[in-house]
Amino acid sequence: MQTDIIETLPALLGKGTRRALVLALASTLALAAGSGARAAEEEDQAAEAANAPAETEEIVVTAQFRREKLQDTPLSITAISSTSLEQRSINSVSQLSAGVPNVNIQPLGAGWGSSLAIFIRGVGLNDNSLSFEPGVPIYIDDVYNGRPQGAILDLIDVDHVEILRGPQGALFGKNAIGGAVKIVGKQPTGDGTGYLELGTGSYGLFRARGGFDLAIVPDTLMLRASFVTKNQRGYGDILDYGCATGTTIPGGTGIVPGNTVATLPSIAIPSQVAAGGGRSCVVGHEGGTDSKAARLALRWAAAPNFVVDLIGDYTRNEDEAPVSKFLSINSDPSSTTGTNGLVDAWNFLVGIPVYGVGISDAFLTSGKFSNYNTYSDSLTGLSYPNVNNVEHWGVSGTINYDLPGVHIKSVTAYRRFINEFGRNSDGTPLAFNRTYNITTHDQFSQELNFTGALLDGALEWAAGGYYYKAVDRDHQTTVLLPFFPAPIASTFRQRVQTEDYAFFVHGIYKLSEKLSLIAGLRYTHDARDAVLHQVACCNAPPLDGLVLIDNASPQPVRTARWSPKLSLSYQINPDALVYAQFSTGFRGGGYAPRPSNAWQVRSFGPEDLKSYELGAKTQWFNRRLTLNGSFFYSDYTGQQQGYNTIQPAGTPGAGSPWFTFVNIGGSRIWGFEAEVQARPTPELQIQGSIGYTDYLITDLGSATGFLATRDANGNPVYPPYVPKFNYSIGAQYMIDLGSAGTLTPRLDFRGQSSVHYVGDFIQKAYGVLDARLGWQSSDKSWSVAVYGTNLTNKYYFHGMLDLRNVIGFAQGNPAAPTQWGLTVKRNF
Questions:
Q1: Which CATH number applies to 38-235+287-324+373-827?
Q2: How distant, in Å, are the alpha carbons of 131, 488, 598, 821 from that of 547?
Q3: Helices 18-37/2-13 angle, 10° precision
Q4: How far apart are CA 490 and CA 479, in angstroms?
Q5: Considering the chain, what is the average pLDDT of its residues?
Q6: Average pLDDT in the 487-493 region?
Q7: 3-class DSSP state for residue 657?
């Protein structure tokens, strides 16, 4: 039977994938078979296992609406405990993918505000526009966080994190088409404990965090409070152009494109710092942070069967814009005719007449983390502040009530954020492309679920309903694009309302002592409506106040979906579980982002994914070795894909930049992943992972003519932020110092293959090395740690924006160089 599966399934996928598929599938099945062959031996050693001095870490998860051990859950989940987070120096949501196969989580970078790009198995989102919803949602204490924007948060008092790979439509509903990230905070116990930690490090880092847990009324009313604050100077330098180069920008006069009447005055950009070069030419920074966050949890155990949890969290970041680097332009600097690309057109119409110079490679700096950005505009007098400010907070109330034969859980929550950010997207001192945004998000959600067991415990079931309503507003997006046939600057506002409701049922039926059937079904109704308004601003008459988009509404998006799930799991022995699963998910539709005129106000449809998975979870050598693996194959239809181009001739507003989205007809994704934890001795711990994702567009559908299935070199076109391979290895060894405590050195290395970002730029493969040395006193009351990140000073980008075919430039966001830190912690 195993041979039939191996021979038949690859034939359906195509000859090109057969070899790798057979290897992955055979490895998974061989792993399961090997576990079965060892069952008798494992049972004979049960007594010895019970007395084993060390085991790999075991975490309890709640992915299936009930508490169960990670190794007993037939899903592809990576669970990271608070201890492991501390050992790896992970303190932000943006760092959570380190060491997780086929998962990529990182900041989007300049122009996107406080937004995360989260991709799992090739599915995710790399935009912050209100037009889209995440493909991998974040849940904070069981509450869905409806936007990837505002999600770069500190991890405050976390118990553990669960990262679920693959579509979770039946369990988590809409938008969990790629997977889900669950952040589970610590709950009050009333044990009277607490902690305080202080830290310092590179670029003037100061970090403090602490918390306490107390009983207001013993065993009845308990409180847990925690906080974190961080301040650090940015690692990106903003240089004064005149100071650094000894060159002045003379200025001149010119005509604004699209306006044959107004004439611009002569403009010069004087040097902001006296000539001298070197560090004296640094006039500002990017990447700096000043953040504060707190969490308060209150538990009321009114009765043994009735518990209420109230949780509130608050984050305020007053940060600088992410570090950016001007990379390349699409122009001929010697052109005076405007016929060699969009930058030349800007140079001919605006740059040379107004400033006396045009955009050229003269604005490329020699430093890896420097630029000539200015956050003001001499043409309009507008200010585009160097900020990335976020205020994000939420409150939730959870009721757990046990009745005979059924457990009732209700989660009521409200969340809100406001994100203000400015951007110089061209990386030059000239007023070429500036943006400024103020975005807010308000959401209310209510979930009610029931769990229980029937047939003498043979059937464990869950059922319930969910309601979600959110209002997103882009209060102000001011855009400066002086070279297009449009006003110099415009202000864009939009309001988007999303309303969903869902019903679900899920069950686990034990067909035998070892074999279980798992089935789930969710119905979701999704509705999105938007109103968009754009007006010319900040210019001389007759342009000022000109309405470009007059409260236009794209076609409303309505989606109804049934999301089924079906799987079989087989418990070979207490240490080996294998499963086969079919799961589905979908993401609601939206509308094309950033329209520059009414013609571009268009909607796109939803997308759907069906996934087939084989997996195994095993433990070996008295549970000193944990080895989990899975193989998956997915059919992806209607995939929402963006592209950047110029609005075609013959349409109203022809020649304007066009940032639009289409639904790809179909794609197929397959791959495999493996994770290992080993504890050969009580002192030594080793973790490793590897993930592979193979993606191919099989039908362009409505994207025909806009996108391609392969690039110029014949390679398949991958979605942005999706590498083929990612891998990690980490190890630590605890040295017993007797009464002096313990000393634990740790090394972590993670890497990935090349990856596309927005446009044609490709980030080459890279690897990053981190290290930590920790000391803990014998009574565990004191601990000190020194750590370093990116120790080889690898230069790579966590985001790139290639708009050379739209407005002629490319800009990247370099990741941080080598940094070090020191922390001192006191437990009490």
A1: 2.40.170.20
A2: 21, 13, 10, 52
A3: 160
A4: 6
A5: 84
A6: 70
A7: strand
**What span, in angstroms and rounded, lies between the C-alpha atoms of 411 and 498?**
19
Strands 179-185, 68-69: pairing kind: unpaired
The CB-side HSE value for 738 (13 A sphere, CA atoms) comes to 0
- 3-state SS class at 70: helix
Rounded Cα distance, 171 and 564, in Å: 9
In this predicted structure, what is the pLDDT of residue 65?
82
Whole-number pLDDT of residue 146: 87
Sign of CA dihedral 73, 78, 83, 84: positive
Give the closest residue to 612 by CA, choosing from 640, 598, 632, 630.
632
Q: Is 345 helix (H, G, I), strand (E, B) or coil?
A: helix
Which residues on adjacent β-strands are paired with residue 498? 470, 528
Q: Which residues contact 703 (CB under 8 A, 6 or more apart)?
A: 641, 643, 662, 663, 664, 665
Q: Taking 50 as the threshold, does the pLDDT of residue 256 lie above it? A: no
Residue 707, pLDDT score: 79
Distance CA 205, CA 231 (A): 6
CB 213 within 8 A of CB 230: no
Classify 131 in phi/psi space as left (phi over 0), alpha (psi -120 to 50) or beta: alpha
Cβ contact 579:74 at 8 Å = yes
Is the separation of the CB atoms in 596 and 486 below 8 Å?
A: yes
Q: Which residue has the tokens 């970078």?
A: 109
Q: Is 540 left (phi over 0), alpha (psi -120 to 50) or beta?
A: beta
Give the C-alpha separation, 599 to 654, whole Å. Answer: 10
pTM for this prediction: 0.88
Please report, for residues 287, 369, 394, 585, the alpha-carbon distance to residue 814 in angstroms, rounded to integers and kept in the order given.
10, 7, 32, 34
Report residue 484's pLDDT band, with 50, 70 and 90 as the boundaries: low
> What are the domain boundaries of the chain?
38-235+287-324+373-827
Amino acid identity of residue 350, one-letter, is V
Q: Which amino acid is at 76?
A: S
Q: What is the pLDDT of residues 715-774, one digit of tens each?
A: 888 888 899 999 999 999 999 999 999 999 999 999 999 998 876 778 899 999 999 999
| Distance in angstroms (rounded) separating the CA atoms of residues 171 and 504 | 8
Q: What is the DSSP string of 117-143?
A: EEEETTEEE----TT---SS-EEETTE
- Cα–Cα distance for residue pair 421/99, rounded to 1 Å: 31
